[in-house]
Backbone:
């Protein structure tokens, strides 16, 4: 089974300074970055990543993935999904374009909503490589130039602007692939993973204190999928590098952050909505995963 490369490890491997927010000891900090592909190693490690990545790729190469090798011989958008291991092998000296990378904490619920099934960034069953026509290049290249400009700006809400630009890039990929038929077959473990991810995402958003989470544990998800929990755990761990419980926990924490910041519900109500019978249990769970209490997170700037 492949290993998982973290953001810290990526910056170290590419001889870049680790951004300050990733050195924080509190929880899982939000991170976004965009760079020119001015340097590209001949072959990158074959790994999963703990983050998302979008390339504007100019230069020939091979994308090695879990079940296939894609020959990239013309400009393309390439979407890296954390659940799928891959490696890039350059086959031409001239490697240009851009890449941006970001983690789960950077993704707002609005950015992902509605795209889970149709975007290769979030759906591992879709081909990650989108070859675009020549006349689309100026527009797509312009999006990456905008990302660079916004990241350098002092605008207070620049990351919201960046998320909107990312959605434009994502939709470019969706439009490019709209005429490409879906894969005729996927194997059983792929199907289980997709069904689990779909079921997990359908539990959210939590829209009312009167409508708490109904499926909370790995065994409950296994029951819904009509498989043994041990088999579910094995498949999810094999495909994502994370346990079923970790996947559920990450999504619950992301929803907790959204509710703490965007609603006026008190901490006890939010904890109850997310399946915690006692506020103390929610406090301990949230602090273990983020380094902050729910109250401290809610009131931080």
Residues:
């Amino acid at each position: 089974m492949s290993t998982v490369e973290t953001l810290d490890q990526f910056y170290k491997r590419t001889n870049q300074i680790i951004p300050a927010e990733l050195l924080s000891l509190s929880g899982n900090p939000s991170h976004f970055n965009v760079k020119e592909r001015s340097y590209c190693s001949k072959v990158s490690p074959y790994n999963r990543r703990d983050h998302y990545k979008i390339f504007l790729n100019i230069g020939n190469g091979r994308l090695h993935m879990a079940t296939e090798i894609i020959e990239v011989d013309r400009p393309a958008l390439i979407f890296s999904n954390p659940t799928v291991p891959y490696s890039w092998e350059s086959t031409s000296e001239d490697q240009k374009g851009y890449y941006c990378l970001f983690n789960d904490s950077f993704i707002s619920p609005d950015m992902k909503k509605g795209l889970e099934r149709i975007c290769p960034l979030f759906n591992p069953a879709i081909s990650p490589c989108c070859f675009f026509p020549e006349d689309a290049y100026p527009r797509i290249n312009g999006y990456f130039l905008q990302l660079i400009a916004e990241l350098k700006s002092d605008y207070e809400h620049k990351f919201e602007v960046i998320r909107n630009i990312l959605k434009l890039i994502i939709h470019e990929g969706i439009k490019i692939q709209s005429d490409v038929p879906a894969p005729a077959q996927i194997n059983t473990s792929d199907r289980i993973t997709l069904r689990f991810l779909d079921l997990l995402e359908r539990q959210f958003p939590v829209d009312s204190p009167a409508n708490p989470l109904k499926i909370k544990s790995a065994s409950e998800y296994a029951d819904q999928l009509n498989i043994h929990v041990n088999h579910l755990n094995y498949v999810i761990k094999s495909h994502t590098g994370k346990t079923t419980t970790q996947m559920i926990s990450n999504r619950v924490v992301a929803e907790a952050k959204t509710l703490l910041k965007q609603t006026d519900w008190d901490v006890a109500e939010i904890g109850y909505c997310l399946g915690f019978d006692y506020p103390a249990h929610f406090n301990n769970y949230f602090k273990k995963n983020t380094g902050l209490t729910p109250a401290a997170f809610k009131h931080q700037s």
Notes: The chain has two domains: 4-179, 188-299.
